[in-house]
Design brief:
With 130 residues, the protein is mainly α. It is 69% helix and 0% strand. Among the domains are: 30 residues; 53 residues, Histone, subunit A (Orthogonal Bundle), CATH 1.10.20.10. The longest helix has 28 residues. It comes from Intoshia linei.
Amino acid sequence: MRVKNTPTKNSSFNPILLTSRSTLFSLFLQSQEKRRLKVYKHSIRKLKEKQLLIPLKSFQRIVKDIIGAHGQNFRIQYEALLAIQTAAEDYFISLMKDADFCTKHGKRTTLIPKDIKLALKIRDNNDSLS
């Protein structure tokens, strides 16, 4: 004959008895805040690391071709290459923003080459004025 053994209750730990409803709610809010803080820290970490739009090797090849066109064999430091790439990408992004404004001004949604040409022409006129 089999005897059924029931596990003994640990009377010292009962989460419902030890904590009131408001304490449980505050613990829930704390865990939500921790989660939210973790997400914020993760997004800040992502923003701090500079993610370049153009692959580094491709950009390096283009820069070496341009430098090599002048006939001399120059060497370029990694930090200088990153600075050139960052500046080039910033210029390209701002040009695309201006071209997008031209597209919206034309009441269109598709960016076409004449928008980029117009943005370049407007920039050129602004540079000659200052």
